[in-house]
Amino acid sequence: MDKDFNIISNPSHYSKGKIEPKDYIMDHDMNWAIGNAVKYLTRFPYKHKGEGQIDDLRKAKEMIQIQIDKMLISDNTK
């Protein structure tokens, strides 16, 4: 299937698989932090090379840490 790539609504680095990350994220009702982690993990092999790939993995790690911190704060206030 030939996809019409558009840098804004359908960039090639998000269109490698059968489902785009935005559709997966919305279908699973993910929040901002986890959705961003999925986005960075999905695109890191395709959007950048070298250090850029590591940066995307660091961004994903940061998003996961934001979610962990939020959950820990929430647990401490109960």
- In oligomeric terms, what are we looking at? single chain
Described by the principal axes of the CA atoms, the overall outline is: flat
In DSSP terms, counting alpha (H) and pi (I) runs of 4 or more, how many helices?
3
Structural class: mainly alpha
Global Rg: 15 Å
Low-confidence stretches: none
Overall pLDDT metric: 85
Helix content: 55-70%
Give the distance, in angstroms, between the N- and C-terminal Cα atoms: 50 Å
| SSE order, one letter for each helix or strand | HHH
Beta-strand percentage range: under 5%
Taking the sheet with the most strands, its summary is: none
Total number of β-strand segments?
Answer: 0
Fold and architecture overview:
The protein contains three helices and no strands. The N and C termini lie far apart (50 Å). The model has no long low-confidence stretch (mean pLDDT 85). It is mainly α. 63% of the residues lie in helices and 0% in strands.
